[in-house]
Structure to design on (483 residues):
């Protein structure tokens, strides 16, 4: 594998160099435009020259960005798919696919986005628990009216991973355990106070049926959910809907991506492995493979 | 404005505030009490489910171990389920008996490998486990609501309202885990 890393690292360095050159050119062009004094005789020529340099820099940077994106895609297909298969043979990793918006909104704890993106889909069965997970970015459209015209821009309010675990057993009612906010649903959710003060401090529990909340959230599960929250930085939400458990981790992280100016080596692969193994962690730590969550 | 009139308005205002607080506290107490009652009926449902499933399990056991099955059946006080007028203590006792039967069946099954392999028996065993989970959830929900109610009742000044409407502290539903572990069977 190190040989394969070497060819990726060479290509990556080339892309990074191109990106860097583009960036420097654009910066130089900007300096020329900004520093040229109005008193200078040839202001227009200097500004045109600066503009051209910015343009060339932007084009070079775009070419570098494109090269980097291509390497990233190839790396996922050639290396990461294999790593994933080795770790969890009964799973499939599709870098270019993602969860569909319908599935994401089924969580009923995330509001509808104006712009939706999803990639790095992993599907499969682990310890008899069927699952799907992918990176998801949800963005909200903002419009700003200024004297120079209307400016439209998008702000991401969710960047992270969404997990879907399917069980053979139906839950009675709907249950959501959220670190913040309220359910995004018209169902008659009521706030439930669990007996654990620590759990109530950390999470807000909403359910359409009090008894179901206590049935699913056993003292042990509550403790494990708190541990899972500690191990995964960001805002975590759990949503039990029908026979499905959704977990949304809003951690502002785009998993399984190569990083600029960071060499591809075994330590990076280990990091990716840890990200893959989060699925297994959730299944075992929440005991999704045991007792009440599994069909007889 | 006349000073006496101002004092009168202030006193009236205070009285209205006190009345509003009294009504809202009373309503809160009644609502939590209702939640406790609902949770208690949840315990009844879970107990009935456990009783029915265990009865079916005993019937299946009878085919393999008639004497043991009948001995265990005699442990249960109410053969027709929970009576209407049963108190919380009665229900605790009933739960203890059901748990004794469940533990007894586990002992019997070890002696009869054929029974252990019986498909219906295995399915019922899972169902019994399921009823235990439901019962635990019902018990925890009941106890959480009782804690909420008792906290209001003992907290001043809400305790004044609780006394006025004769609302008393409720008892917790205990599972008697220790007793269950000590059970011994001699068939």
């Amino acid at each position: 594998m190190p040989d394969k890393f070497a060819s990726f690292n060479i290509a990556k360095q080339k892309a990074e160099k191109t990106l860097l050159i583009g960036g420097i050119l654009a910066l130089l062009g900007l300096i020329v435009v900004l520093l040229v004094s109005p008193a200078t005789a040839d202001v227009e020529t200097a500004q045109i020259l600066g503009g051209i340099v910015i343009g060339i820099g932007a084009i070079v940077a775009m070419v570098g960005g494109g090269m980097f994106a291509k390497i990233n895609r190839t790396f996922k297909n050639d290396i990461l798919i294999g790593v994933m298969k080795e770790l969890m043979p009964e799973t499939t990793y599709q870098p270019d696919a993602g969860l569909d918006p319908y599935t994401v909104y089924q969580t009923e704890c995330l509001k509808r986005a104006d712009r939706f993106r999803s990639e790095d889909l992993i599907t499969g069965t682990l310890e008899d628990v069927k699952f799907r997970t992918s990176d998801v970015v949800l963005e909200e459209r903002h419009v700003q009216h200024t004297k120079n015209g209307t400016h439209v821009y998008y702000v991401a309010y969710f960047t992270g991973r969404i997990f879907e675990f399917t069980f053979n057993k139906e839950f009675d009612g709907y249950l959501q355990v959220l670190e913040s906010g309220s359910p995004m649903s018209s169902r008659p959710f009521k706030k439930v106070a669990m007996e654990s003060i620590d759990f109530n401090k950390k999470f807000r529990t909403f359910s359409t049926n009090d008894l179901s909340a206590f049935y699913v959230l056993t003292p042990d599960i509550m403790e494990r959910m708190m541990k899972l929250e500690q191990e995964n930085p960001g805002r975590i939400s759990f949503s039990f809907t029908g026979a499905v458990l959704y977990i949304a981790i809003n951690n502002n992280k785009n998993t399984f991506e190569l990083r600029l100016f960071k060499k591809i080596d075994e330590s990076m692969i280990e990091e990716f492995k840890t990200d893959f193994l989060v699925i297994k962690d959730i299944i075992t730590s929440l005991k999704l493979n045991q007792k009440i969550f599994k069909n007889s | 404005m006349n000073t006496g009139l101002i004092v009168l308005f202030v006193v009236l205002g205070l009285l209205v505030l006190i009345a509003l607080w009294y009504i809202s506290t009373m309503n809160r107490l009644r609502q939590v009490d209702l939640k406790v009652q609902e949770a208690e009926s949840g315990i009844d449902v879970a107990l009935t489910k456990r009783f029915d499933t265990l009865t079916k399990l005993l019937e299946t056991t009878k085919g393999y171990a008639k004497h043991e099955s009948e001995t265990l059946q005699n442990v249960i006080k109410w053969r027709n389920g929970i009576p209407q007028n049963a108190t919380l203590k009665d229900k605790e006792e009933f739960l203890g008996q059901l748990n004794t039967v469940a533990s007894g069946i586990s002992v019997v099954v070890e002696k009869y490998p054929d029974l252990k392999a019986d498909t219906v028996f295995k399915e019922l065993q899972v169902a019994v486990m399921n009823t235990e989970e439901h019962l635990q959830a019902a018990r925890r929900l009941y106890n959480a609501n009782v804690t909420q109610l008792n906290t209001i009742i003992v907290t001043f000044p809400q305790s004044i309202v609780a006394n006025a409407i004769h609302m008393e502290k409720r008892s917790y539903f205990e599972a008697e885990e220790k007793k269950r572990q000590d059970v011994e069977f001699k068939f």
